[in-house]
Amino acid sequence: MSEMIKVNIDGIEVEVESGATVLSACEKAGVKVPVLCHHPDLNVAGVCRVCMVEIEGMGNLQASCAYPVTQPLTVKTKTNRVRKARRMNLDLVLAEHYGDCYTCPRNGNCELRTLADEYGVDKFKFPHVDKPRYAKDTKSFSIIRDQDKCIHCKRCIRTCIDMQKVNVYETANKGHDVEIQVALNKSIADVVCINCGQCVNRCPTGALWTQDVSDQVWEDIENPDLFVIMQTAPSPRAAIGEEFGYPPGTRVTKKLNAAMRRAGFDKVLDTNFAADLTIMEEGTELLERLHKVIVKKDKSVKIPMFTSCSPGWVKFIEHYYPDHLDHLSTCKSPQQMYGAVIKTYYAEKIGIDPSKIRTVALMPCSAKKYECNRPEMNASGYRDVDYGLTTREMAMMLKEAGLHLADMPTEEFDPVLGEGSGAGMIFGATGGVMEAAIRTVYELVTGRPVPFERLNITPVRGMEAIKEASLKLEKVKKEYKWLEGVELKIAVAHGTANAKILMDKLVDGTLDYHFIEVMACPGGCLGGGGQPIPTTPEIRKARANAIYQEDEEIEIRKSHENPLIQKLYKEFLGKPGSHKSHELLHTHYTKRGQYFVKD
Amino acid sequence: MECRDGNLVSFVEGTVEKYGKGRENLLPVLREVNEEFGFVSGAAFIEISRVMDISIGEIHGVASFYSFINEEDRGKYVIRLCKTISCDMAGKEKIEKTFERELGIKFGESTKDGLFALDYANCMGLCDKAPAMLVNSQLYDSLTPESVLDIISECRRKI
Amino acid sequence: MVKAKEKRIITGKFTPGSGIKAALAGKPEEVVQEVIDSGLRGKGGAGFPAGLKWRFAANEKSDMKTIICNADEGEPGTFKDKYLLDNHPMKVLEGMAIAGYAIGADKGIIYLRGEYAYMLPSLEKNIEDIKKNVFSKLKVGKKKFEFDIKVRLGAGAYVCGEEFALIESLNGNRGEPRNKPPFPIQKGYLEKPTLVNNVETFATVSHIIEKGALWFGKFGTKSSKGTKLFSISGDVKYPGVYEFELGVKLRDVLELVGAENTKSVQVGGFSGINVTESSFDKTLAHGDLPAGGSIIVFNKDRDMLKVLKNILEFFEEESCGQCTPCREGAYQLLKGIKMIEKGEKSIRYYKDLCDLCATMKDSAKCGLGLSIPSPFLSITNNFKDEILYR
């Protein structure tokens, strides 16, 4: 631990580590400093100049987000000089921002508007942009860009470069002509964007948003000929409460079920069920791969196997590591598996013509919108999933319909394919897929539950960038004799910057694992690009806690013990990895351009 | 890019080899590509990105920051007339008009034959010999309408 | 009346090799001390004591340090570094080597503005020559003295004269100034300690080390030692580069260069200040008129509103564009002054623009943004009637 240094903020004394910023000292002292370019997840920019403070001994005001504490400091944050400078810089930002607030998706949740409110902006001090100058970029299935709202804070650039290592954004030109552009001023649909939406989650204004399909969903709900089925993923359930004023980490699953039924969805199903199905297929695939590699010495089979349920991650590897697609599990994501099963098995069960079924997936994710539109995702003979809705869109739909979660009773999921296990639930957190898979694979191989207290595989939990663990397989069942004594090595990465570290090792030939879980978003799905804004490390931790709590409360906590899953295999699919499974639940990947999208 | 220009590929590869692959060599590489082809094309951005392993956005962001890196084919002779105060006071306007009349285009435009482009530049350090301009990377000072006509003729002769 | 005389130090005689030889005769810390004792201030415009910067750089521990010669002379009205590199390149190269020895760096880079690309061949030849004829014959103790210099070209960006912007440009990035601290001497080129000085500073150092701090201290004023090159342009009979002792009166300079009917003078370039008759008896020295080296003279026929707009247009284009007060502030100053001119804004709006200046001066990220208010406020103050009430 580095040296602690005293900082006096408006008379309040605090101690911070040497090198910490003045802003963090202010936070520690409980003094709020306004910020626009600063974000707790991102590297320092120091460009908006709204967080200015007075530091004793310095001639000019300093940006508190960028000033490191290396010696004792006396800081003033409330002087008239500070107040005027902040307000003036805010006035300047407002002058270059096309503030059409009524029609903005961030109306009510805009950091710029909040600051204008807090600083009592009652008029435009300077001539301001009053007409749109740019065409909105709406070509992508996932991300929408409205450059007129951009205030040049560069959070999107820093997110895309530092956090995700995707690098589709750039600062172009200089002087007053500076623009934040997508590479070479292309549409975001035409560059190597992975649709993770992390930029959307960090944009302080409405310059970035996700495609909104709620109108089409409303249309379908009202269409008497259509039967609209909702599947909800675990992460939105742990976060949508935030949109209704609940603190982060509040679990509202059963209230949400009720609200969605009232909104008009004909069935409400639990994506955790499909997560269990994914575990069955992926676990089986892992064992098959290991068998081919260890026993048959088949060089064409690739280990480590990477999970494939994060569509942002899938697109990342398709763009950046197109020669290593064989390492991806062929399993579809739970969303897509569910869609395929709903429009086949489930349609038959409830006696509805699949052509009349519309499947809607409530997801924490912007990339799911792209995923469900992939041309190959039609195993059922129809579009397997018709719409991907983000948590934010769902909240908006419910508000539009006057359905407030606080007023809702609690209701269960619909039966037949209704429920998932606790293992499916934890898919929402980084490490969750790995934990769920290990709970099943270990037991399949050894006949015993995983040797962790209450089945909680803690080494793969938490927000560490890359987690690794190993598990020795001993006293295995007869049919897995070839695995006796094998130390199963696993790793978990979240955020594609961390995934890239692993991929670069793979390219170098120094990656020594059997199975790796990757989620494109920091924290896993609970930090997805469709989740409520804002996002911070604390908020993500709270959502993770909610998810792990729900797991512990579910009676069945292993995917293979889910009786509905067992029934599905018995009645329909046969066994995991069967021909039918492959037809419906597995997919293939596409090598994509490394610079631009090739059609 | 399906169809790659072999000339461009070998030039970029050669230039990067000369300077090194490190990020710190990006500006010299951009300068040389600009010098060789007159501008840095979309295809050139891709090649530089491939060879130097820097994202296209970052490269374009850097290129667009510097006034002398062209992003389109402006013409064989890009004329940049200094518009900063000393040149302005020393008769920049006359020079401006001479160019526009002689070439039949306005500043910011290029001639149809692809020979000339007219642009402005900021102070180029020839304030004591104003007005001044750059033709590509060649400096000209103490301009008069007559000398401008000579320079245009000389350029035309050189093709 | 005493007329200003040109005083030649920086542009005077120099025996190649005499500076670096004198440096190597002492310990590095003695060289640093000599520069500190000389009272030399950086010649780029900010006027930071050069020796102090060298000491900080020398104290940094690192496996690699770099000397950078800032030859991105972009301040409008400045062309003295061009003169030096054209006429006295060896002094500059030698000064860089002296700095390298003093702080423990064996590599130097000259960041030459793109407009001066024509110098590249001769400069590279001079570097070859000095390495072959001077450096290779020198020893530090028993080891051969080595100092390598390369030239890197800019590509048209005024802000790259700011030392961090320059370093970012050399690092292959957009020339955007960084937050300080850490300073370049801690984390600069390739994130390693880097000493950046101006062309003229290095040239002066060669003389200081050759002849000693005491000798140098005889010139100039108490707080501004030595001489300084001034680039003089605008409405004068004899524009060009002049070397004056610091502390010279502006009036004497104007007389020498043949300025007649002078209305005002822009001292220190666009980022300096505008002065009129009443300030002509002030001196060009630290603490008085900015001694950055650019002097642009306007005679009675000049329209100061036009001058102001020209200056603001320059900043609006040449701001790096990252921080709000500079990017949008420069634009709003220009727009505001035009709106007042057209009568679209009341002259009361001028007060808002002055408030804006106060914020820019207090909160911009680098020297460029911090200094835009200087020409705006001084010109509008000097010519209120002409600009606001026309």
What is the beta-strand fraction of chain A? 5-15%
Give the helix proportion of chain B (percent range).
40-55%
Using the CA coordinates, give the radius of gyration of chain A: 25 Å
Radius of gyration of chain B: 17 Å
CATH topology title of the largest domain in chain B: Glutaredoxin
Task: Report the total helices of chain A.
Answer: 19
Largest sheet of chain B, in brief, is: 4 strands, mixed
Give your account of this protein's structure.
The complex is a heterotrimer of chains A (599), B (159) and C (390). With 599 residues, chain A is of the alpha/beta class. Chain A has four domains: 4-78, Ubiquitin-like (UB roll); 126-210, Alpha-Beta Plaits, CATH 3.30.70; 214-273 and 335-407, Rossmann fold, CATH 3.40.50; 279-329 and 421-585, 3-Layer(aba) Sandwich (Fe-only Hydrogenase (Larger Subunit), Chain L, domain 3). Helices cover 34% and strands 13% of the residues of chain A. Chain A has 19 helices and 17 strands. Chain A has a five-stranded mixed β-sheet with strand order 2-1-5-3-4, sandwiched between helices. In chain A, helix 16 links the parallel strand 16 (487-494) and strand 17. In chain A, helix 9 (271-294) crosses helix 15. By secondary structure, chain B is of the alpha+beta class. Chain B folds into two domains: 6-65, no CATH class; 77-158, 3-Layer(aba) Sandwich (Glutaredoxin), CATH 3.40.30.10. Chain B is built from seven helices and four strands, in the order H-H-H-H-E-H-H-E-E-E-H. Chain B has a four-stranded mixed β-sheet, with helices on one face. The model of chain B has no long low-confidence stretch (mean pLDDT 95). Chain C has three domains: 18-217, Rossmann fold (3-Layer(aba) Sandwich), CATH 3.40.50.11540; 227-299, Ubiquitin-like (UB roll) (Roll); 304-388, NADH-ubiquinone oxidoreductase 51kDa subunit, iron-sulphur binding domain (de novo design (two linked rop proteins)). Chain C has 390 residues and is an alpha/beta fold. Chain C is built from 16 helices and 13 strands. In chain C, helix 1 (18-24) packs across helix 8 (199-211). Chain C has helices at 18-24, 28-38, 50-59, 80-87, 89-103, 120-133, 163-170, 199-211, 213-217, 250-256, 304-318, 324-342, 349-363, 367-371, 373-382, 384-388, and strands at residues 66-71, 107-112, 139-140, 143-144, 148-153, 194-198, 227-234, 240-245, 248-249, 262-267, 273-276, 283-284, 294-299. In chain C, the strands form four sheets. Chain C has a five-stranded mixed β-sheet. A four-stranded parallel β-sheet of chain C has the order 5-2-1-6, with helices on both faces. A two-stranded antiparallel ribbon of chain C has the order 3-4. The longest helix of chain C has 19 residues, at 324-342. Chain B binds chain C through residues 22-28, 30-31, 34, 54, 61-62, 65-69, 83-86, 88-89, 121-130, 134, 137-139, and chain C through 73-79, 82, 113-118, 152-158, 169-175, 189-190, 231-235, 239-241, 266, 270, 296, 298, 302, 306-307, 310-311, 313-314, 317-318, 320.
